[in-house]
Design brief:
mainly alpha, about 425 residues, 17 helices, single chain
Length: about 425
């Protein structure tokens, strides 16, 4: 891999479609919250909040599929190993479908466990359970899409990712409006809209990757289930799985602590988490560029390219973070107003907008470093770093929660961002030394 091929234009060509597609994802969260918010009640907002957190946490346990597929595929591209590129697509698809069907099979046990640790009120829990019972039936499609997206990103075909996300989130938003506002189906309408969007998007994603099916490698038992490849993929996926579990545990506990305060705080934090989601999906555009290009650099064993990619993506991440902070500073109150028509809830939420303004600046190094380590498949370092970061987060909650309440919870999330960046930065030079 020639380091001169790493240009700002190439980074932006990968990043911009991802950022544009990701914009539709938090927009979906905004619309979900907004259409439920128009009912003028706090309980449905809390139910969608808890339900969304639980199902998202379950799905993002399988986030290893997207990340592992990107890193491994990008390295195979860097090595010019087309046979392995195609085999990785089939492996990712197989894992996604099997994982989704297992979730459906054990759904009652999973939901029971989730609600055992949830301190939400009976009203919120009842509505959230109805939401989850519908959402779970698109699990095979939703999880397999992770593999499809990871493969497309590694192939630098992010314009297809944009098209797929536009369809998935666009049809979801359209159905939200029709089913919830038009037909009055409430929380169940939000869930049905998402199920249809995820299943239809899975089949569109398969069509986008149709070139894979033109040969025979994708269905070759010897290639797809090759023992050493499966062992390596399993190790990488397990490390990312542990890392994802710890990260999700932090945010789930955040929402449960919010619910423990009161339903009002839970609703406010659900609104504020949309800001965090917008931030993460914006920064992910440049993190995904790092995954793809670092993976190719590692596959080609080019330390010079690795250094150039790391520096350039960090610069772009910082630029995006500053823009996001300024946007929240000037328009944060308007975003809150879009998500609820309750004046009392708007005023309550306004108290915590400060945390949204500083979050992008504190978070961007962690996101870019995640991308670098995923591309290099240094997943053991990611796993260990997240374990340390989660312990630091728990300590921060122990220190800040009692005296500062919801402010203490948000301070703990900021501590988590910083800890993630520090733990990974200490290991970065090991990647360079191995090339």
């Amino acid at each position: 891999m020639d380091s001169s091929s790493i240009t700002h234009k190439r980074i932006l060509t990968i990043s911009i479609p991802i950022i544009l597609s990701n914009i539709t994802i938090p927009l979906l969260g905004l619309v979900d919250t907004a259409v439920i918010g128009q009912m003028g009640e706090i309980v449905p907002i809390g139910a969608v909040a808890i339900g969304s957190v639980i199902i998202s946490a379950i799905y993002w346990i399988f986030g290893f599929l997207r990340m592992g597929t990107t890193g491994l595929t990008a390295q195979a591209v860097g090595k010019n190993d087309n046979e392995e590129v195609i085999s990785l697509f089939s492996r990712a698809l197989l894992i996604g479908l099997i994982g989704g069907f297992l979730l459906i099979l054990f759904k009652d046990l999973i939901f029971w466990g989730a609600f055992q640790i949830s301190p939400a009120s009976d009203e919120v829990e009842s509505l959230a359970y109805k939401y989850l019972k519908i959402r779970i039936y698109s699990a095979p499609a939703a999880i397999a899409i992770f593999g499809i997206l990871g493969w497309l990103i590694a192939k630098e075909q992010t314009y297809l990712v944009l098209i797929l996300q536009l369809w998935m989130n666009g049809i979801n938003i359209f159905l939200d409006i029709i089913l919830v506002i038009g037909l009055g189906w409430g929380v169940e309408g939000v869930a049905i809209a998402t199920v249809f969007a995820e299943i239809s998007s899975f089949f569109i994603g398969l069509y986008m990757c149709r070139s894979v099916f033109m040969g025979t490698e994708w269905r070759s038992f010897n290639l797809v289930l090759k023992r050493d490849k499966l062992i390596n993929m399993s190790k990488i996926n397990f490390d990312i799985l542990v890392r994802s579990l710890l990260l999700q545990a932090a945010f789930i506990s955040f929402m449960f602590f919010s619910a423990d305060l009161d339903n009002f705080t839970l609703a406010a934090n659900q609104i504020l988490l949309q800001f965090i989601t917008i931030t993460s999906y914006t920064l992910d555009g440049f993190a995904f560029s790092a995954e793809t290009l670092v993976g190719q650099a590692v596959g080609a064993k080019s330390a010079t390219s690795l250094k150039r990619i790391s520096m350039m993506t960090l610069i772009w991440g910082m630029f995006a973070a500053v823009l996001m902070s300024l946007f929240y500073l000037f328009f944060g109150e308007y975003l809150v107003a879009l998500m609820t028509n309750s004046l009392e809830l708007r005023l309550f939420t306004k108290q915590y907008l400060f945390w949204m303004i500083i979050a992008p600046i504190l978070a961007f190094p962690a996101f870019i470093l995640d991308g670098i380590f995923i591309g290099a498949t240094r997943t053991k370092d990611m796993r260990n770093g997240m374990a340390i970061s989660f312990a630091v987060f728990c300590f921060a909650v122990w220190i800040f929660y009692e005296p500062f309440g919801n402010h203490g919870l948000w301070a703990s999330i900021m501590v988590l961002f910083v800890a993630r960046a520090l733990t990974l930065s200490f290991k970065y030079f090991d990647i360079e030394d191995e090339l």
